[in-house]
Design goal:
alpha/beta; TIM Barrel; M1 Pyruvate Kinase, Domain 3; Pyruvate Kinase, Chain: A, domain 1
Length: 498
């Protein structure tokens, strides 16, 4: 007699609405802002193809963030979606202070004084920079960039009073609160500022799915954040934002310690010589895939659509290249947070992704990512590798995995299988978290009887939702004995019965 698994099935509308999210494998992250922060606005973006919403803690209030989180969770509860929430900490972002008359013309050759001892309204005599250790950390000859590199100065003198005198090498109009980058300086600020700690306390209380740490410099920054998350008994996973040259020197360890990585090209493109950014992006993506860690490509992907209805041709190519390079997700920032056409930009990005993914480009990574014998998870990795290879060889209609920690899902995803990838887990937190991983569609399932019953249930659930049909070929992974919760150690191929 067939078992009743109705508690695992969503509404029948999943057959229709859920198809949107099952078709584009490279996921879409959208930043929430005034342009889309209502329930209707968020739902419109989800229907257009958004998988993860990013909450930028550089802007807005906790009250506003809490309301947005309630909206997203209501969508997950009433609609057939598993939308993840990513909380992005501001980090030690350095900025200039207020500026007299709201704008200050600065000419090449000007000598300007930066000071951080007290806040002052900026003039050509003195400009405040929100970095108490500025005079201690910079050295004569160091470059300082303002407003994403639009203005460039060189340190000429550091006075006994703690003032930093600089010479302008590229002038411009200095506006209030613009960011300051120190590409030649080893910053001594902690990775988590006082503001971040206040925000983190709020975030942990909200049980979000992912927390992004800005301006990561070394693996220890991630270790510290993960310790705080664990102490709070939170299941949130950590994303390391790569936007400083020092992070690139410790990239391997940062990737190992993180649960995911973001290529944050805004500050990275200021801190690094611009010509190095494309290869840095490609290298980060490649290393993340090899470590089975989700990787997001972010910043200015379709910025022209802030006010236009079509992207620039270069932006179309930028999104396409991120997909071709194997990114798990591509991210929209101001385009959805403050742009005039948030839903249209998501729809456009999704069309670009689908067009690349439907062509015969080499996104399948099986031959590149063979299991490594020295890996402590070698046997489990080998099963995942061969599951993807078998699914490819047989042109299976579904590749199904089970996970308790998320590792099997991340590993199967990292091989970029050609077959649709479905993951079942008893950990409710993972269902949304896995929305970030390439190609993954996750389901909650907590039965622990025989492996045959579990596989039968999985097929029934996927049939009821319209993802597979009678006669389809399916590859399953799992672990036996079930009750021991061992790493993935089993592989099965079968046809779907009536």
């Amino acid at each position: 007699m067939a078992r009743d698994i109705s508690k695992y099935t969503h509404e029948e509308m999943d057959k229709v609405a859920g198809i949107t999210h099952s078709t584009h494998r490279t996921k879409i992250v959208a930043t929430v802002g005034p342009a889309c922060d209502s329930y209707e606005g968020l739902l419109s973006l989800v229907k257009a193809g958004v998988n993860i919403f990013r909450l930028n803690f550089s802007h807005g209030t906790h009250e506003n963030k809490a309301e947005v989180i309630r909206h997203i969770r209501a969508i997950n509860k009433t609609e057939p979606y598993n939308i993840a929430i990513l909380a992005d900490l501001q980090g030690p972002k350095l900025r200039v202070g207020e500026i007299e008359n709201g704008a200050l013309p600065i000419a090449t050759g000007d000598i300007i004084t930066f000071q951080s001892n007290q806040k002052v309204v900026g003039t050509k005599d003195s400009i405040y920079v929100s970095y108490p250790n500025l005079h201690e950390d910079v050295e004569v000859g160091n470059k300082i960039l303002i407003d994403d590199g639009k203005i460039e100065v060189i340190v000429r003198e550091i006075t006994a009073a703690g003032e930093v005198k600089v010479e302008v090498t590229y002038g411009g109009i200095l506006l209030p609160k613009k960011g300051v980058n120190l590409p030649d300086t080893k910053i001594s600020l902690p990775a988590l500022t006082e503001k971040d700690l206040i925000d983190l306390d709020f975030i942990l209380g909200q049980n979000v799915d992912w927390i992004a740490l800005s301006f990561v410099r070394r693996a220890e920054d991630i270790v510290d954040l993960k310790r705080r998350i664990k102490d709070a008994n939170s299941m949130s996973k950590v994303i390391a934002k790569i936007e400083m040259p020092s992070a690139l020197t410790d990239l391997r360890n940062i990737i190992i310690e993180s649960d995911g990585v973001m290529v944050a090209r805004g500050d990275l493109g200021v801190e690094l010589p611009v010509e190095k950014v494309p290869m840095a992006q490609r290298d980060i993506i490649r290393k993340c895939i090899h470590r089975a860690k989700p990787v997001i490509v972010a910043t200015q992907m379709m910025e022209s659509m802030m006010d236009r209805v079509k992207p620039n041709r270069s932006e179309i190519t930028d999104v396409a290249n991120a997909v071709l390079e194997g990114a798990d997700a591509v991210m929209l920032s101001g385009e959805t947070a403050a742009g005039n056409h948030p839903t249209l930009v998501v729809e456009t990005m999704r069309k670009i992704i689908l067009e690349v993914e439907r062509t015969e480009y080499r996104y399948n990574r099986e031959e590149d990512l063979r299991p490594q014998p020295h890996s402590p998870s070698f046997l489990s990795d080998a099963v995942c590798y061969n599951a993807c290879k078998l699914a490819n060889d047989t042109k299976s209609n579904a590749l199904i995995g089970m996970t308790q920690s998320g590792y099997t899902a991340f590993m199967l995803s990292s091989y970029r299988p050609k077959s649709p990838l479905f993951i079942f887990t008893k950990e409710r937190s993972l269902v949304n978290q896995l929305s970030l991983s390439w190609g993954v569609r996750a389901f909650f399932y907590d039965e622990e009887e025989s492996i045959d019953d579990i596989i039968a249930d999985q097929m029934t659930i996927l049939k009821k939702r319209g993802f597979i049909k009678t006669g389809d070929v399916v590859v399953n992974t799992g672990s036996v004995p079930i009750h021991l919760h061992l790493p993935t150690n089993m592989l099965k191929i079968s046809r779907v019965d009536d």
